[in-house]
Specification:
In chain A, about 60% of the residues lie in helices and about 0% in strands. Chain A has a two-stranded antiparallel sheet with strand order 1-2. In chain A, helix 3 runs antiparallel to helix 5 and helix 4 packs across helix 5. The two termini of chain A are about 20 Å apart. By secondary structure, chain B is mostly helical. In chain B, helix 2 packs across helix 8. The longest helix of chain B has about 30 residues. The radius of gyration of chain B is 27 Å and the shape is extended. Classes of the chains: A mainly alpha (about 425), B mainly alpha (about 300).
Amino acid sequence: MSAHANTYVPKSRVAKWFESRLPLVGLVHSSFVAFPVPRNLNYFWTFGAILIAMLMSQIVTGIWLAMHYDPSAANAFNSVEHIMRDVNYGWLLRYMHANGASMFFVAVYIHMFRALYYGSYKAPREILYILGVIIYLLMMATAFLGYTLPWGQMSFWGATVITSILGAIPIVGETIQSLLWGGYSVGSPTLNRFFSLHYLLPFMILGVVVLHVWALHVTGQNNPAGIPIKSSKDAVPFTPYATVKDVFATVVFGIFFAYWIFYQPNYLGHADNYVPANAAVTPAHIVPEWYFLPFYAILRAVPDKLGGVILMFSAVIILAFAPWLDTSRVRSANYRPIYRQFFWLFVVVTILLGWLGAKPPEGGYVIAARLCTAYYFLHFLVVMPLVGLFETPDRLPDSILESVTGPGKQVSGSGMPAGAAAAPSSKG
Amino acid sequence: MKTTRLLAATLVAATLGITLASAEEEHGAPQPPRQAWSYAGMFGRFDQAQLQRGFQVYREVCSSCHSMNLVRFRNLSEPGGPGFSAAQVKALAAEYKVKEQNDSGEDAERPARAADAFPPPFPNEKAAAAANGGKAPPDFSVLAKARTFERGFPKFLTDALPVVGYTEHGVDYIHAVLDGYEDPPAGKDVPSGTYYNKYYPGHLIAMPKPLSDGQVTYAKNDKGEPVVPETVNQYATDVAAFMAWTAEPHMMARKALGLRVILFLIVLSGLLYYVKKKIWAKVGGEVHGLQPELHKTH
């Protein structure tokens, strides 16, 4: 897999001159044109492309919004409303950016559950997968910082709650907190540095995305069968096959995205964030954005503040250990009858945690949140290691081709032409 | 296999049971009744006459206490709004005074211009709070987006859907509060400075009943009859619709552009689907979805 040669052959003199000095076109060609893609990928594999599109959308709309935004406590709220009212298509930029963050998380959660279901984290893709966890962490930081910027009530109080969580960390907590605050409470200096960091982090995400794609193109893609490409018949070249599928899926996702922008622009936000920040008035319920809710539920499920903080961060960090917690050598849950059921239970529990995160931490909600938190961790610490040891997996297909066509059948058309990057030949 | 299923079902059922039981206890305050807004839905449009009446109610009643700092006079003549003419707006603005330093650096007043924001009723928030029992009345500009109420499960999910969706929580809440003043139930203690309101959370609101029947005289039709009834309910409806517009002045442009964007993307995705199908036909088509059965070897 890792030995796919650079098959780009420059034609013009200028291209030859450039390629011998910097093989950039060849790199792009080997990564996005000639790159062999398992031919059995389903639509869950298009979310990588969708996520890149979302990152680009966020960066472009964000740069334009920053031209009109004023990161001071006195003017931030009104400058956002200035964008909504007076800037040409400012309402579109802002709604694209605010809902774009949510759509980014919708896509990343599908991408992550896909990785968990098909065992994409297993060898040899551990680094690829861990880079993904790092991107997810950076996304969460960026989204949290960004939600502070409109300087509404939920911005202010969300920032207050989360930064005070960091204060619970022993020894360094208070230093981190006052560094973030730039003072003794959340205020204008906080907003200034949050804006600065919110502009910085997306470019760090972009950097890690480059590493993520690089690692992907060393190991090759996993696939629904979870078995490696064994012959050229198992694969198709990235372009045109994956390209056209990715573009189609991205446009369909764009329809979904557009619906939120134009018809439900405030559904995923909070009404309280249209009330200007006020340090003297605490909102009735301080609730984070929906994509943080499962972790917020875990935080509140623990009666001890520090314990809650540790558990909440562990809930994310534990993802990075999945490659070593899962003892099964079979990647795809399609061939793991027991694990498959636990996987779907895990999905349900995560969604339940999300719902509980939005509810007040009282009565039955707390009990339910504790049950779900317990299962969340049990899934990684007990289910993943044990099921892998005791489960008898179904028999794996001999090849990706067989998983597509069924055993022992001949197919018309082949995948990758051996050694050539041109269009695949029509006969295998 | 059976045990895991049983285990999973038990856990999910227990969690759901506990949470739904807790959800039952939450509901206490009545839900604001849903109004038929002309601007609701994907094809919704503001009713210009309603926005003009709503502005009249704001101007004659609400504006004595509530500011509208983010709305400018010129907004009233911009597309997608109440549709006043530029000349009407200019004349209207001239009736207001704006504080400004003159060229000698002294505080002075001048007549407002179309580009000015509506001048606030109080010089600052402290003055507003002092004149209103300790709490400044909220600004009207984005108030319709700043208020909402819990719809509960499963309505909070269906609210996000097309056609059956619902986005007018804030406006319905404002309408309900304005029309929700009534006598307190027997035994309910209403401290002085507060008033009983059916829809206000906790029922005790600091704002005295602001509207009464016949308070605002609407324009008459040719026969000299009012076009709409001059009742609290009608005033509340009109001013709430006006506030929906102040909170989202580009709403009509947004919905109109959305329709074009989505139609374009649907057509584009349809074309791309067939391009993709044709390309993949060269290698015998592709497989879709999870399809665990297909991946199994028999």
